[in-house]
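Let's practice the habit of predicting before peeking. Look at the sequence and jot down your guess about where helices and strands might fall. Then scroll down.
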Amino acid sequence: MNILITGGASGLGAAISRLLAKDSANTIYFTYRNSAANAQQLESEFNNAKGIQCDFGNAESLHEFLAQIPTLDLDVLIHNAYNGAFLKTYFHKIPVTDYLTDFTENIIPAIEITQAVLTNFRKKKSGKIITVLTSALVNTPPIGSAVYIANKAYMEKLTKVWANENAKFNITSNSVSPSFMQTAMTSDTDERMIEQMVENHPLKRLLTVEETAQTVRFLVNAPAHINGVDIVINAGTNIK
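Done guessing? Here is the structure:
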């Protein structure tokens, strides 16, 4: 399969890229913004992995990337990239411009990339879209996460639209909603908060990027009957 992973050179994205690249039948394309060294490392580890530098916050860079998509002949699109902070401050203190900036740099690129990929998927009458969300959409969202949660909620609804509109073309759209993971994006999280999360966790340990990557791999290989599904990865803390 030809698989595109946005933000696939660091954190969760790198874990997904590595896991899927271990299958020599896959060709992995991954985008990166500033992680050139990580991208080179992945390419040196796997002959079937190719990094594509793209700044989603730069319209020219994004459109150059969009022009390449038809040549990739993709079978799977994995939305993983997120440019911005997980936690900022209380909702009423966040400048309105922060919402606009994060929406422009995350949601708009995801929309344009998906539109470009769907054009090819519909011609092939097959394809899979997998979107990384967050378990904070079903659990209590942490203080300071308003911008991040709002963007993920927007993507959550788009995944349902994609699933419904494209099912008859044998195209699926599913998502994963992982709980807190320690990555570069969450590196500013207070250590006391992390200790509290571990203490309150049913397994007494945080979710790893490798565990989430395994769930993404499941959806990559899942049958077309699995469509419009969100897999929450939070050790059952939202069971009702």
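How did you do? Residues 44 and 103 are 34 Å apart (CA to CA).
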